[in-house]
C-alpha cells in the first residue's frame, strides 16, 4: 500500500495530520500563559502512500517536473549497490507500471507534491495558533524533517541510502533576539544538534554535556568561520556519510567508498573516491567517522 497514491480522503478533517494539528491547537488555547510550554507536533505527510485531499492535487493538467538524472550507477561501489538492491523493486515496479499505463510515474510525483502542499497547510494552521496564543518574542520554533526522498534519482525511490537526496532535510530555527529572520546558513549540520540547541536557547541549567550533537547557537549568531563539526548520517552498522564543507564522503561496512564535490557535482553523478588526487581529502573526512558503534536493533538490521 505504500506505493499507492491519489486524492483521498475527500475531507481533510478526516486525516491524521489535521487531527494532530487540531489537538496541538487546543493545547495552545488551553495553556496557562504564565507557565512555559514544550510542544511537539509530528506531521506524517508527505510520507507514502501519497494520498492527499482533492484540493491539494494539481489542477489544469499541471505537472511537476520529473528530476533529470544520469544513468550513473556504473561508478557505485559494492557497498552502495548492496543497499540499493534492497529497494530496487520500487523503482523497477514503477517503471514497469509506467510502461503499462503511461503517465503513472508523473502522477506519482504530482501526488507527492500534493502531499507536500497538504503538510505545508497543516503547519500553517499550527503557526497561526502559535502566533495567536503565545508570545512571539519568547517562543522558539524548530521545523525539520526526518529524511530526504528519492523520486527516481539513481534509479531509486524512497530513502534507505546515504546520498545527499536521501539525507538532506528542511531545517528552520526561529530564535528571537538571536537568529536574524530570513537568514540562511550553508554550513552542514545534523539533527543530533536539536537537543543541545534547545537546551542552550532555553538556558536549561545542568543540561547534559556528553552529547553527540552540538548547539547551533554560534551559527545562529552568524559565526560560520570556525565551525569544526561535520554532519554525520548512518544507515546500518558500518555505513556512514560525512558531510563537511562542499564534500560528501560515504564509507560502507565492506570498505568501499564514495566521494562527491557537491559544489561542482550537486547530483552526485561523479564518484571521486578512486581518484589519487583526493586521498588527502578522504583521509581528513575519514577521521570524522565513528570509532565505536552500538549494535543495531534486530528489526532494523540490513539483510546481507
What keywords describe this structure?
alpha+beta; two-stranded parallel sheet; globular
Helix content: 25-40%
Shape: globular
Largest sheet: 4 strands, antiparallel
Radius of gyration: 21 Å
Strand order across the largest sheet: 7-8-9-10
Mean pLDDT: 93
Count of runs of 4 or more consecutive helical residues: 8
Terminal-residue CA separation? 25 Å
Describe the model.
Helices cover 30% and strands 12% of the residues. It has 304 residues and is of the alpha+beta class. A four-stranded antiparallel beta sheet has the order 7-8-9-10, with helices on one face. Strand 4 and strand 5 (157-158) form a beta hairpin. Helix 1 packs parallel to helix 4 (104-133).
Task: Please describe the topology of this protein.
Layout (H helix, E strand, L loop, with lengths): L4 E3 L8 H15 L19 E3 L25 H8 L2 H13 L3 H30 L7 E4 L5 E2 L5 E2 L5 H4 L3 E4 L19 H8 L15 H4 L10 E4 L5 E5 L2 E5 L5 E5 L17 H8 L18
Parallel strand pairs: 1-2
Antiparallel strand pairs: 3-6, 4-5, 7-8, 8-9, 9-10
Amino acid at each position: 500500500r505504500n506505493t499507492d497514491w491519489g486524492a483521498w480522503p475527500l475531507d481533510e478533517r478526516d486525516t491524521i495530520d489535521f487531527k494532530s494539528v487540531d489537538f496541538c491547537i487546543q493545547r495552545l488555547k488551553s495553556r496557562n500563559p504564565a507557565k512555559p510550554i514544550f510542544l511537539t507536533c509530528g506531521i506524517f505527510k508527505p510520507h507514502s502512500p501519497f494520498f492527499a485531499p482533492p484540493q491539494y492535487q494539481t489542477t489544469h493538467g499541471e505537472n511537476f517536473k520529473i528530476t533529470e538524472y544520469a544513468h550513473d550507477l556504473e561508478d557505485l561501489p559494492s557497498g552502495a549497490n548492496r543497499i540499493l538492491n534492497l529497494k530496487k523493486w520500487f523503482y523497477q515496479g514503477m517503471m514497469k507500471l509506467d510502461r503499462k499505463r503511461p503517465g503513472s510515474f508523473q502522477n506519482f510525483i504530482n501526488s507527492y507534491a500534493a502531499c507536500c502542499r497538504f503538510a505545508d497547510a497543516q503547519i500553517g494552521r499550527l503557526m497561526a495558533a502559535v502566533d495567536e496564543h503565545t508570545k512571539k518574542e519568547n517562543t522558539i520554533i524548530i521545523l525539520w524533517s526526518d529524511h530526504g526522498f528519492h523520486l527516481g534519482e539513481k534509479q531509486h525511490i524512497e530513502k534507505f541510502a546515504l546520498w545527499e537526496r536521501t539525507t538532506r532535510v528542511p531545517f528552520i530555527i526561529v530564535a528571537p533576539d538571536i537568529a536574524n529572520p530570513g537568514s540562511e546558513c550553508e554550513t552542514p549540520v545534523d539533527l543530533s544538534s536539536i537537543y543541545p540547541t534547545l537546551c542552550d536557547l532555553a538556558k536549561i541549567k545542568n543540561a547534559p554535556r556528553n552529547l553527540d550533537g552540538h548547539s547551533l547557537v554560534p551559527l545562529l549568531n552568524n559565526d560560520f568561520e570556525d565551525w569544526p563539526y561535520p554532519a554525520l548520517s548512518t544507515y546500518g552498522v558500518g555505513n556512514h556519510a560525512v558531510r563537511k564543507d562542499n564534500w560528501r564522503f560515504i564509507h560502507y561496512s565492506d570498505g568501499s567508498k564514495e566521494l562527491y564535490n557537491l559544489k561542482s557535482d550537486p547530483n552526485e553523478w561523479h564518484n571521486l573516491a578512486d581518484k589519487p588526487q583526493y586521498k588527502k581529502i578522504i583521509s581528513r573526512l575519514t577521521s570524522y567517522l565513528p570509532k565505536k558503534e552500538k549494535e543495531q536493533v534486530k528489526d532494523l538490521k540490513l539483510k546481507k
